[in-house]
Amino acid sequence: MSILDFIFYSFIVVVFIQALFYFIFFGRFAFLKQNKSTLQNIPVSVIICAKNEAENLKNFLPSIISQDYSNFEIVLINDASSDHTLEIMKHFAEQNTNIKIVDVKNIEAFWGNKKYALTLGIKASKNEFLLFTDADCKPVSKDWIKEMSSHFNNDKTIVLGYGAYSKIKNSFLNKLIRFETLVTAVQYFSFAKTGIPYMGVGRNLAYTKKTFFNANGFINHIKVRSGDDDLFINQVANKKNTAITFSKASFTESIPKTSFKKWIKQKRRHVSTAKHYKFKHKIILTLFYSSNFLFWILSILLFTLTYNWQYVLGLFLCRLIFQYVIIGFSSKKLNETDLLIWLPFLEIFLIIMQLTIFINNLISKPNFWK
Question: Which class in CATH covers the domain with range 44-169+197-255?
Answer without folding.
Answer: alpha beta
